[in-house]
Amino acid sequence: QYVPVKGDHVIGIVTAKTGDLFKVDVGGSELASLSYLAFEGATKRNRPNVQVGDLIYGQFLVANKDMEPELVCIDSSGRASGMGVIGQDGFLFKVSLGLIRKLLAPKCEIIEELSQLYPFELVLGMNGRIWVKAKTVQQTLIIVNILEACEYMTAEQRKQALAKVSGN
Amino acid sequence: MKETPLSNCERRFLLRAVQERKRLDGRQCYDYRNVRISFGTDYGCCIVELGKTRVLGQVSCELVPPKPNRATEGILFFNLELSPMAAPAFEPGRQSELLVKLNRLIERCLRNSKCIDTESLCVVAGEKVWQIRVDLHVLNHDGNITDAASIAGIVALCHFRRPDVSVQGEEITVYTPEERDPVPLSIHHMPICVSFAFFQQGTYLLVDPSEREERVMDGLLVIAMNKHNEICTIQSSGGIMLLKDQVLRCSKISAVKVAEITELIQKALENDQKVRKEGGKFGFAESIPNQKITAFKMEGAAVDTTDVEEQAEEIITKADPPSEVFTQPILHTPGTAQIGEGIENAWGDLEESEREETADEEGETDAPAFEWEKIKMEDTSGTKETEKDEPIVLSDSEEEEVVILEPQAPSRKTRTQATLKQENTSKKTFNKKRKKKRVAH
């Protein structure tokens, strides 16, 4: 179970659009709120194009045990720096929180080895959610399966699996 | 607790994967997940695992007066429970629609098919009959509870032994297991449910849908069949319209699957029987392996990894035709040249690429887009060929325009992936500078 922490970057799913607020599910015990003004270049007239069911990559502005958590897609200087609505294609899946922290470490072997295979886009949320997009469905599925299995595989098993993929 | 909502992204991906006949765990369209059956120490207790979906079945019996209109028949009672440990959305005490549907289906499958001989459950006509109660608990929900529950039900019934009875005149003696061996129920046949998930108005069909696939499916068809190819129950939900030949095809598939599963069940029952007879250890403690918190195991997913990597030739042949052709190449920085084919410039798409690049800084693995790969390929081929036209060297990369030559012969463009990665980073930092300049103008 994920506990929201201020400053954490997470992937959320928009569940409701009420007035000028979005309700986003981040995998915690409560839904987080996201104001429509918290996007880069958003004004009252210029609303961001967010629908229910879209994926959002944002960080927590407020996250304590007394209040409802708040997400923003903008950093302190007002720029998006990678946050916002995540693109339409690709696949979202869940892994354990420990694996996410391992993948976000500076020199993560898993990511380096995977990037040797073929190009793909990857967004990691601290709430255990990962979004992957590769050129074909097959490639995406391979990455999803390898990442899910990385939890349980030793480094050697992983290298073997990757060798099998690149060998074919 | 509410369920996690399904994002549009996942839905789209799953539908696309189904269209390409690919499943998340690498199965084929008609493949079942691994079925594992284990028995407990008591007779009539079993756990069935269908992939990660687990259902526990327990059978018990009791002597009761029979129903008034069926005085010579025993009573069968089925109960399916969705325990909250199966899925966060299942709450105790709440009669959800899913629960009612599953209950009705199991009841119809096992009761109406007359797989159990109820006449044999009669002890004294009109006074005492056996009431057999089958309790099914869903321990984990990963899709297709129907099939797992039906297998658990029938296996538990086959495994169960009721106490032996003898009637002398008016006296009924029920023997304890120590006095006389308990007697198995008389079962005529084993009906097993097979579920089919339909997508896109019946165009695509999957057997044994997993939880994600169930969320995006259009409709579900359940066929309960036994190994003698007799259909016991058929149910279609979701309101999709099925053609006659689709239903026939499904019934043929389920005949094959049911035969396999029945064989598996027989083998499991025999094994258990053997172990008990030989006095060996039996029960859950033996069959369900010890799982320590620190030791993880996962089943390998067989994902098809053939033909995953694209060859450079494929990329070239699929490229878009050139859009603009200028006469002179311009060297952006000394040592590189842009003499590529004019593919669609990704320059115009500033926001997206900007986000991709800044996302790179946050530790994501960013993939060069399709177009960038091409440009990089041209780059290195350019460095090898500076004897083309007279290049104009601009010392700082302050220029704006991308100058493109006529496309070269395809043979030049074959390169390996390894060198591609090296160009990656240098090209990226270079691109950033260019883009910023563009915005300023």
UniProtKB/TrEMBL annotation, chain A:
GO terms for molecular function: RNA binding. Residues 90-138 form the K Homology domain. InterPro entries: Exosome_RNA_bind1/RRP40/RRP4 (IPR026699), KH_dom_type_1 (IPR004088), KH_dom_type_1_sf (IPR036612), NA-bd_OB-fold (IPR012340), RRP40_KH-I (IPR049469), Rrp40_S1 (IPR037319). Signal peptide: none annotated. It comes from the Eukaryota. It is found in: Cytoplasm; Nucleus, Nucleolus. Keywords: Cytoplasm, Exosome, Nucleus, RNA-binding, rRNA processing. The keyword RNA-binding applies. Its main location: cytoplasm. Belongs to the RRP40 family. This is Exosome complex component RRP40. The lineage of its organism: Eukaryota, Metazoa, Chordata, Craniata, Vertebrata.
UniProtKB/TrEMBL annotation, chain B:
Its main location: cytoplasm. GO terms for biological process: exonucleolytic trimming to generate mature 3'-end of 5.8S rRNA from tricistronic rRNA transcript (SSU-rRNA, 5.8S rRNA, LSU-rRNA); nuclear mRNA surveillance; nuclear polyadenylation-dependent rRNA catabolic process; rRNA catabolic process; TRAMP-dependent tRNA surveillance pathway; U1 snRNA 3'-end processing; U4 snRNA 3'-end processing; U5 snRNA 3'-end processing. It comes from the Eukaryota. Residues 350-441 are annotated as: Disordered. GO terms for cellular component: cytoplasmic exosome (RNase complex); nuclear exosome (RNase complex); nucleolus. Residues 32-163, 189-254 form the Exoribonuclease phosphorolytic domain. Residues 350-365 have a biased composition (Acidic residues). Residues 429-441 have a biased composition (Basic residues). Keywords: Cytoplasm, Exosome, Nucleus, RNA-binding, rRNA processing. Pfam families: RNase_PH, RNase_PH_C. It is found in: Cytoplasm; Nucleus, Nucleolus. GO terms for molecular function: mRNA 3'-UTR AU-rich region binding. Residues 371-391 have a biased composition (Basic and acidic residues). Belongs to the RNase PH family. This is Exosome complex component RRP45. The gene is Exosc9.
